[in-house]
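Readers of this paper often ask what the protein records in our data store actually look like. Below, we set out a record of this kind in full and without editing:
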Amino acid sequence: MRSTILKTALGAIIVILLGAAPAHATGKPDTFALPNGFQPEGIEIGPGPFAYFGSRVSGDIYRADLRTGKGSVISKGPGTPSLGLKTDGRRLFVAGGTGGNARVIDLRTGKVLKSYQLTADPAFVNDVVLTGDTAYFTDSRNPVLYKLPLGRGGALPDAAVTIPLSGAIQYESGDNAINANGIVLSPDRKSLLIVQSNTGKLFEADPATGVTTEVDLGGETLVYGDGLLLSGRTLYVVQNRVNAVAVINLARDSSSGKVAKRLTDPRFDVPTTVAAYGHRLYLPNARFTTTPTPDTPYSVVAVKP
């Protein structure tokens, strides 16, 4: 009897202690820091609970454990940006921004397996998507896609192929015009979905020809649209300077979509890109409206979709 009473009392104490514990003590942190001065842009998650971030100032690649929020730089950058990121499970494909290039990095060693100079013209290689046997990169300054056709076993090609974009998408000129930005594979896997940041429009692109058609959003705009994430037929579009994520229900053929809601959070400080793990969306705060210094703090925010 005494033993039973003692066990009951101990159990009650444990329950009280657990109930009093802060949320982060019993699960993954909702917010965690990146290195000061890092200037994050892209995010990719996996394999496992590991997130990768690219620095737009140095090109460094930082890996964080989502269970603790702790991490370190696994690959030093070339001194030019690392923006959009995608992994095939063993390699990380990196869009090189103003460097006009792309890199493929071994996730285990951090070694650059191959680097591609995609163009000699002024460029802003912004995002990347993997479609199984191909990597496609957007360029926010030039109306093209860059294609890396992968060989048997994912073998890397010697050079990229340039595919002109045509049809509905119309690029605006000027150094501050961010045109084609985030890119994902459509739900039916027949086309690519691309958001144009400066016009707020969403397009389908034929991956073979580059011909684009506008997705009918019923008059909604996705201005400042940045990173994209597709889950089934739900498309998440980060609207960076709006500090929101548009949640769009797409038609089966992606010809139209309806903005169901927008996710916002007081912790958002110009988030740029989004990736999912478990039942959470993770977004790095790029803080575009804050003058960057070597000591400027940056963070990653987790929200429920």
User: Anything to note?
Assistant: The chain has a mean pLDDT of 92.
